[in-house]
Amino acid sequence: MTGTIQAEALFASDLQPSELPTAVQVACAIDVSLRTWGGPEGCAAVVAAEYGDHPETAALRMRWALSLATTCRATVGCRAG
Predict the structure, then answer these.
(1) pLDDT tens, 20-75?
(2) Nearest Cα to 50, choosing from 40, 58, 38?
């Protein structure tokens, strides 16, 4: 899975930057988001919608998501349900 797909999935997740998530939380959020939104295409659609509706905050969230996806690279698998 590419860093871009991971970042889009993280962007579309419920995880918030204020939570200061761990690598495990990031991996779980990516996994849950991909399942919730139907894969990479669904996550990309969420990203596109947010950029259309809230471009001023979407850019900040994407920078956060890209940074975490690059750092974590989801090296830790999600152990949740």
Answers:
(1) 998 889 989 999 999 999 999 999 999 999 999 999 999 999 999 999 987 776 45
(2) 58
Of 18, 25, 31, nearest in space to 71 by CA: 25
Structure tokens at 19: 């939570």
Residues 74, 10 contacting (CB under 8 angstroms): no
Does the pTM of the predicted model rise above 0.90?
no
* Contacts of 67 by beta carbon, 8 Å cutoff, 6+ apart: none
H-type helices in the chain, by residue range? 3-12, 23-36, 40-53, 55-72
Distances (CA, A) of 70 to 49, 53, 81: 23, 26, 25
C-alpha to C-alpha distance for 74 and 61, rounded to whole angstroms: 18
Token pair of 1 as six digits: 């899975």
